[in-house]
């Protein structure tokens, strides 16, 4: 990948076979490459090289506490991680959190999108307050939930959980993590869906209601099909984003009681354990998982990549 | 509306009720942390939603120590510098994507999309080691670089969506009058693009301001630790004091810029977030 781009600016403009390009066209191509080069170089330098490097590190035994034992071990780290129950617990937890929170967000987000799109009163107000969860620092919101559900400081723990401390038990913790995640990201989902909602022609809805379709039928038979591309893009974005969940878990439980996600596990191995080999292996595994999820979305569901009106939409 | 009935008071009232639900939903956790930040140490654990005793003590405490001021400066400096650089680089690339025909365009869009969806933790591991070796670990540039990288896709998408809306003809006219493509970019398109650029800057700033994973992994001292990362190291005025009040106060302080952006630029932020996603 990095190869192709670093080479691109060097590629001279003349196209094979076609008649020679006009001076203006050549200048345009040169300018285009020139303008893109800095952004491309930064992105490649900060991601391309580290990715290759982490694959290299993942094939080594490399623990910063014992640097002398650094050694090439092939796939030993992968065997170690993949046969470790902690990893699979974290993987299962992450998958569970991802699927459940994205599903809830889709339903709530759709409702919120409809409200933002159609409300007769206070549209500006609704849109403004909706942006607050989107914009607020995740850690700040997480602390708010943390204190709310901690018996000593919390109104919610006192009101709803009685004497128990929900954040010290596995399942209550998981649901609270989902609550925090859903609260924070539903507005983003809603905004993406609202953009899709704006594409549904009013005439179509009117025609459907003339034909006797009720509100639910209009929603499922008219709106959802028209919005399908927007829904898929929103789902893709949110699924990949949810899969890397870290902030909320870090603050709410710090991974205690089997609530750790794969990102938390990687962080713990790296920063606390200083084990670069294992940390890199986990990083690569997460990367592969995300690639598979994206692949499924694009190939199976036919999600169009946004941002490329020429090539992205199939 | 689709049914075509008149807008009755009843329907308005129903929508108003829905609005109230949304407002409560959005503000509840925010108000709770605000409430905690104003509680005195004695009433901190009374669990009351509204403080019984109001005090500014927590705010006075955080602004009295370097524990908060230094991270706040780091947060501001790092986010602003990263935003500036990302928006400038993104502007150049987005202009090229929206307006010019050149080889490698699809590749660039594809790479941006990949990075936007990339699991950040996968980069933390190698960056941690690379930055240690280069001496970038626990420095401002050590955070600014990954922030720019992850902000660039966002900037490129949002900006190219805005740039497509700009009337082509003006640029052509400028070129007819003898301007080079470069001049057309600086003199004609850039001023027209200013609102879009501003919106993008807000979105990018929010992204940088929000980051926690890089901030906590690639820093180790107050030299570059940003507020979200510093919050979890707060100890209160003395080491043995419960930091709930001070954490809450600091959390409220770093929420203020977000609230201001949202209040003043709601329309633009909504436009920015939705334009990139749909028109693409």
TrEMBL record, chain A:
Q: Provide the topology term for how it sits in the membrane.
A: Multi-pass membrane protein
Coiled-coil ranges per the record? none
The main location class comes to membrane
Bias class Low complexity marks the residues at 8-20
Region named Disordered? 1-23
Q: Where is the ABC transmembrane type-1 domain?
A: 91-297
What name has this protein been given in UniProt? Sugar ABC transporter permease
Residue spans crossing the bilayer: 31-56, 86-116, 128-148, 174-200, 274-298
Read off the InterPro entries from this record.
Answer: MetI-like, MetI-like_sf, Sugar_ABC_transporter
| UniProt keywords, alphabetically | Membrane, Transmembrane, Transmembrane helix, Transport
Similarity-based family: Belongs to the binding-protein-dependent transport system permease family.
Location in the cell reads:
Cell membrane; Membrane
Question: Which CDD domains does the UniProt record give?
Answer: TM_PBP2 (cd06261)
Check the record and name the Pfam families matching this protein.
Answer: BPD_transp_1
UniProtKB/TrEMBL annotation, chain B:
Q: What protein am I looking at? A: Carbohydrate ABC transporter permease
UniProt lists the family membership as follows:
Belongs to the binding-protein-dependent transport system permease family.
Keywords associated with the record: Cell membrane, Membrane, Transmembrane, Transmembrane helix, Transport
What SUPFAM superfamilies does this protein's entry cite? MetI-like (SSF161098)
Q: Which Pfam families match?
A: BPD_transp_1
Q: Which InterPro entries match?
A: BP-dep_ABC_trans_perm, MetI-like, MetI-like_sf
Task: Show the PROSITE patterns listed in the entry.
Answer: ABC_TM1
Q: Does the keyword Acetylation apply?
A: no
The transmembrane residues are 16-38, 76-98, 107-128, 140-163, 184-207, 247-265
> Where's it found, cell-wise?
Cell membrane
Q: Does the keyword Nucleotide-binding apply?
A: no
* Annotated organism of origin: Prauserella endophytica
